[in-house]
Amino acid sequence: MLHPVAEFIVCALLLVGSVFMLVGAVGLFRLPDFFMRLHGPTKSTTLGVGGVVLASVAYFSFRGDASLHELLVTAFMFLTAPISAHMLAKAALQRQLPVDPRTRGSGWMPRIRD
Prior knowledge:
Layout: H1 4-30, H2 34-37, H3 39-63, H4 69-95
Helix pairs in contact: 1-3, 3-4
Transmembrane segments: 6-32, 44-62, 68-89
Keywords: Membrane, Transmembrane, Transmembrane helix
Protein name: Multisubunit Na+/H+ antiporter, MnhG subunit
């Protein structure tokens, strides 16, 4: 049984992580073009998964079963998510995917017509 403060910390981390993941999923669903949709999974969803993994680290640390594996997973995720997003954006630029007029950035790309 965990101390109430430890339970509060774990619950807060789970809640914050879940909110970030929800925002990322809604952004992925609702945003109009590839470049805008790229921010959902790479920014907020990465923070959301990080919050859930940190909640797991906190839970097992408070129980006395601390493990280095969860911290390594978190570090790997925070290192690989920006690299994969950069590679996806470069591929989309190479293919000259159309963009929504509300997307900020280079003006040479063709626009999506409504």
